[in-house]
Amino acid sequence: MVDTSFATYFRERLLNWAAEIERPMPWKGEKDPYLIWLSEIILQQTRVEQGMPYFENFKRDYPTVQALAEAPEDEVMKLWQGLGYYSRARNLHAAAKIVSSTYEGKFPADHRQLLSLPGVGPYTAAAIASFAFALPYAVVDGNVFRILSRVLGIDTPVDTTAGKKEFARIAQELLDQEDPARYNQAIMDFGALKCVPRNPDCERCPLADRCIALRDGLIDLLPVKEKKLVRKDRYFQYFILQWKDQVVIRKRTAKDIWRKLYEFPLIETTGIEFGGWAQSDLWRELGLKEAGELKRTAGPFRQQLTHQRIVAVFREIELAGPPSELPEDYLVVDRKNLAKFAFPKLIDCYLRDNSLNLF
DNA sequence: AAAGCGGGGTA
DNA sequence: TACCCAGCTTT
């Protein structure tokens, strides 16, 4: 249980601080639940500056949830291109369809129903409930974990079930019931501007006089995370199979990175041994008797993802004519239409480098 | 409970 | 390089 007098102190200092600062954002003070939801999905694990242009683009192309629901999935993926965590785009589209049909285009003013939408978890449900409907649900995001663990000196790992539960309970107790939206906005602004991950501004912190971590010299040790990142290396060889102005691409459908984005035919190897590709099964699957004539190899390109390091080369190959077999998910497109498809950053970089003069 | 999922900013 | 960001879903 959080001490009542501490809760009062915390709220008051936080709200007073927030009243003094400015942090303009396109969705701040927004009342349309659709736009609030849209901004929250975009901002999941994404810094505000990075998400801002995407919010504007989605708002422009899909002014209403119905417009988004009616859009083709590939179009939504294309607009999301470059933002990462593409399941967000897929869930965004799916949720738009649900709201459009089941809820007649209106987001439910109910925390539990919000939580049931695909892509809406505890944080996002609380954000929509408070910002759109003034309901008393405290947001718990990375900022909140950091602030509460420091001020209260809690070393329970935040990336465990017990940690999530404990911090959620405390956050809910601290919430200002009078104006949940203002409070939620304030605590996230505070985490983003004042109680930042490294070198926080403790000298001018309104909570410094009661901050346990500051008193005990634990600022750099909190919050505690238990799991450490494991990173794996992957080696991709992409084949740009061309004849005239036609090129083969395919949609990624497996449960893997970049699902529902497009790429070129791919051979993945377990190591840097990039030879032997001419004998790959890929050519047989495409109904090609031989690998074709290699015109150029570009790369290696590297991309660092959170959990994977990708090393990729791009081999440009001239075919005499179209492949006789195109497996499911493969398609032939005109070179000038490539820009209509959503590609991972890695491939987008390659395409830009070559400014579409593939040969 | 643990793993998987992007891309970019910062120290 | 390592960590973090207005986290969620699947296994």
UniProtKB/TrEMBL annotation:
Coiled-coil regions listed: none
Cofactor binding summary note: Binds 1 [4Fe-4S] cluster.
InterPro entries: A/G_AdeGlyc_MutY, DNA_glycosylase, Endonuclease-III-like_CS2, Endonuclease3_FeS-loop_motif, HhH-GPD_domain, HhH_base_excis_C, HhH_motif, MIG/MutY
Residues covered by the HhH-GPD domain: 42-193
PANTHER family xref list: ADENINE DNA GLYCOSYLASE
Function: Adenine glycosylase active on G-A mispairs. MutY also corrects error-prone DNA synthesis past GO lesions which are due to the oxidatively damaged form of guanine: 7,8-dihydro-8-oxoguanine (8-oxo-dGTP).
Name of the protein this chain belongs to: Adenine DNA glycosylase
